[in-house]
Design goal:
Helix content is about 10%, strand content about 40%. It is mainly β. The chain has one domain: Rieske [2Fe-2S] iron-sulphur domain (Rieske Iron-sulfur Protein). The strands form three sheets. A four-stranded antiparallel beta sheet has the order 5-6-7-8, with no helix packed on it. The protein has a three-stranded antiparallel beta sheet with strand order 1-10-9. It is globular, with a radius of gyration of 14 Å. Bound molecules: FE2/S2 (inorganic) cluster. The site of FE2/S2 (inorganic) cluster (FES) has 11 residues, from loops.
Length: about 120
């Protein structure tokens, strides 16, 4: 059985083996309820318990990385666009477009995320 290290370590190891289609895997327990984690090029959220969603962490405004999480809000500090983790909607800032959804599957307590 493969044992999980930290989310970052596991994700990094997976990314290294993956090549052109970015993807990460993370233990579901690493994603806080009512918030999200940002791992490499993905935002992985759990707005309500057991409801997992994923988005690209590339800002839809001008493609800078989204780097901040505050509860149910993620923020791109380049121009301060803010987005909801619940549905990806723009809450503030210059972005006119919502977060870009990513594909997420769950198996045995592990979340696998890839680009759609
Ligand atoms: S690139 Fe993210 S707000 Fe402008």
């Amino acid at each position: 059985m493969f044992l999980l290290g930290t989310a970052t370590t596991f994700a990094g190891a997976f990314l290294a083996a993956c090549g052109s289609n970015p993807s990460v895997e993370v233990a579901a327990t690493e994603v806080p309820v009512g918030s999200a984690v940002i791992i490499d090029s993905f935002i992985i959220a759990q707005p309500t318990e057991g409801n997992f969603l994923a988005y690209s962490s590339t800002c839809p405004h001008q493609n800078n990385p989204i780097t901040e999480v505050e509860g149910e809000i993620v923020r791109c500090t380049a121009h301060n666009s803010e987005f909801s983790i619940v549905d990806g909607a723009v809450l503030a800032g210059p972005s006119r477009d919502p977060l870009i959804p990513s594909q997420l599957t769950e198996s045995g307590g592990t979340l696998s995320v890839t680009r759609k």
